[in-house]
Amino acid sequence: MTDPMPQDAERTTPRDRLMDAATRLFCKNGINATGIDAIVAEAGTAKTTLYKIFKSKGDLVEAVLETEGKSWRAWFLGAIETPVTPREKLDAIFPALKKWFGEDSYTGCVFINAVGEHPKDETRLRDLTIQHKTFVLKHIGDLAGAAGAARPDALAHQIGLLMDGAIVAAMVTRDPGVADAAGQAATALLDGACGPAKPKRKRTVVLQGGAAALAKEDLSVVE
User: Fold this and answer.
1) In this structure, what is the dihedral angle of CA atoms 37, 53, 26, 12, given to the nearest 10 degrees?
2) pLDDT tens column, 81-101
């Protein structure tokens, strides 16, 4: 259970507390099911403070999506940019998602959830979602091109569809293993577009002097 007030509340601003509270409640209960009264109670602020900072619940929702999107993209890029080659970075996508799916706090994609629970003619949240997805797919497309794909944008779109499917499936089933199935499909796409991944070379340890001589000795047990 989350404490109504962060322990370091005195070191945060009312805006920080409202953002933290709204993020937790939106992710846990949904945007439409979360009222202003619940948010201000969770944040320990007055309702007038919320409206002074954000003007409306809609503005607060947009602020949460923008902040969560920035945070998620920073995490995602950090997770897949650790390997060296473009192909290795692409291969790191679904193992990274699997770790995310396994977190106790996992509730799916905040953008997919937001669009899913709002009217289909709503445009602002859809625009924010498309901006988020465009950034992610652009990065994947750049990696695909560097890995040798002839049609990197098409490959990025295919991988993006697998990512979205895995994100939703993991939210519904609570099974991080769905990332493995999506990753296998992604590997097949990558192999077809870029060629099979090169096996990682094993490190060879060169022994010198006494260590080399010891390695050649018969170390069988002597009775």
Assistant:
1) -100
2) 999 999 999 999 999 999 999
